[in-house]
User: Which sequence fits this backbone?
């Protein structure tokens, strides 16, 4: 019997940043989490918003500035962030960026 799983050898290749704009793709979803891969073109921004549930951001490729509440942090390949529910946050890509968002249900 084979256990079902989801596997990406290279998530960055699955979510190549567009030449302009932001693309998102749900790569996994079940009753506990939703994982969304984002590709940001250089200079693109997700404006300040909140999420009703806790979330995690994992930066796969590129460099960005992330606002978390009143703090501004740099993000790069390898950066991992946990955000509690209702935290105001925004993301601005300094370079083309690939990021994985995991929403906890």
Assistant:
């Amino acid at each position: 019997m084979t256990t079902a799983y989801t596997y990406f050898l290279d998530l960055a290749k699955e979510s190549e940043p567009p030449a302009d704009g932001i693309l998102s793709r749900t790569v996994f979803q079940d009753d506990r989490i939703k994982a969304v891969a984002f590709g940001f073109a250089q200079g693109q921004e997700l404006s300040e918003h909140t999420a009703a549930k806790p979330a995690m951001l994992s930066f796969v490729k590129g460099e960005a500035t992330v606002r978390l509440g009143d703090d501004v942090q740099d993000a790069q390949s390898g950066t991992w962030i946990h955000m509690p529910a209702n935290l105001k946050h925004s993301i601005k890509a300094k370079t083309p960026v690939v990021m994985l968002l995991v929403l906890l249900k």
Remarks:
- Residues 24 and 38 are 4 Å apart (CA to CA).
- Residues 22-104 form a domain with the Jelly Rolls fold (CATH 2.60.120.10).
